Amino acid sequence: MKKESLAWVRPELCVMSGYSVLESSEGMIKLDAMENPFGLPEDVRSRLAREVASLSFNRYPDPQARELKEVVSRVLGVPVPRLFFGNGSDEVLLNLFLSTAGSIVSPEPTFSMYRIIAKSVGRNFRGVSLLPDLTLDMKSLETVLKEEKPGILVLATPNNPTGTAYSMEQISQAATLAERAGFTTLLDEAYFPFHGESALDAFPGRESLLVLRTFSKMGLAGLRLGFLSAPEPIVGILDKIRLPYNMDALTQKAAVFLLNEVLPLLEEQVQEIRVLREDLQEKMSRIPGISPIPSRANFILFRVAGKSPEEIFRFLLEKGVLVRDVSSHHPLLNGTLRVTVGTREENMIFLNALRGGMES
After folding, report:
1. Residues of the chain under the 50 pLDDT cut
2. CA distance 86 to 89
3. What's the Rg (C-alpha) of the chain?
4. For residue 210, what are the β-bridge partners?
5. Of the candidates 270, 355, 262, which has an alpha carbon nearest to the alpha carbon of residue 37?
């Protein structure tokens, strides 16, 4: 397309990089996207199919997702008026960033969509580098918050792609710095199930601390269901800019059924993934040249010595194992790859391939 035909497009979008996803992973052991590897039992899938078949597809879905809100409210203990839903947590982020007139600030490296979404809606994004040990740099964070126009401070814990989690004391300290500078703090707890510590429990009445969650990581990634716990006035503002019928009927019906019927099963799978994570981490540490970073999520970031990450990534790919090369995402990630915790069999195949790649 000729450059002049894009004259109507904001110039920064023409040069901005988007979120990259491999187009096809068919036939591969997929350990790149932090998905639950177990799936749903066949009997549950059959019952779910019957539930979905009962929908009136000629009618619009409930615009307020009332039944879904009731179920999630019961599961989390969060009042319905404090819940806001999105088509994945990405849509919640989009609406939040659209609602602010100020800057989006976040420690980095972290989830790349914070920067991408902020830039896409014309907001200033300011990254604050983590310390070399991947913990928060409170001094730098305080300086940046004072320099920027008040908006949203985003903290991800456990953090992607590092897998590390901030202590509740660190979160409280950062949120206090943000509040003094006029910022609201958004705590992204996408990987909470694998960590077990939440601001919803630690700071139930802190109005300047919003909590973002998703059901994707614990086994429902295909539903694209994200939600925010926030004070009612903020939910009301977000509802004004939310697209009508943003939660489709299929997602609402499936989520209500699954949360009512199989939540204990998903929680069992989460516990198994946590056990597998510790086992995988320990076995990776035995491979010469591989240094896994202790993780509180369902993935492990690991450093590679003596080989380039790209070389190991390509070797694993040739062996049918797909991981994520994040080495170019931030200077602190130089020499790193990220692997999702799979089934025990998938983890063994990955370990054997990784060992072979380091020895080749």
Report:
1. none
2. 6
3. 21
4. 186
5. 270
Residue 247: partners with Cβ closer than 8 Å, 6 or more residues away: 61, 62, 65, 68, 85, 86, 87, 225
Cβ-based neighbour number of residue 60 at 10 Å: 10
CA distance 196 to 296: 9
Residues 182 and 96 grouped into a single domain? yes
**Residue 31 maps to a domain:** yes
Same domain, 230 and 167: yes
Residue ending a domain, among 261, 288, 306, is 261
Residue 303: inside a domain, yes or no? yes
In a domain, 205, yes or no: yes
DSSP-assigned beta bridge partners for residue 291: 303
CB atoms within 10 A of CB 258: 23
Q: Count how many domains the chain has.
A: 2
Say whether both 252 and 333 belong to one domain: no
Indicate if 24 and 76 belong to the same structural domain: no
pLDDT of 262 reads 93
**Burial class (CB within 10 angstroms; exposed 0-12, middle 13-18, buried 19+) of 189:** buried
Work out the percent of the chain whose per-residue pLDDT is above 90. Answer: 89
Query: Do 28 and 158 belong to one domain?
Result: no
Tell me the three state secondary structure of residue 312. Answer: helix
Residue 160: which domain range?
54-261
Q: Please give the structure tokens belonging to residue 128.
A: 């604050």
State the number of CA atoms in the 13 A half-sphere of 181 facing the CB.
26
Q: Show Cβ contacts of residue 56 under 8 Å, excluding neighbours closer than 6 positions.
A: none
- What is 157-181 written as a DSSP string? SS-TTT-----HHHHHHHHHHHHHT
Task: Give residue 202's pLDDT.
Answer: 86
Q: Is the pTM of this model over 0.85?
A: yes
Q: Are strands 321-322 and 29-30 parallel, antiparallel or unpaired?
A: parallel
Helix 249-261 vs helix 66-76: crossing angle, to nearest 10: 30
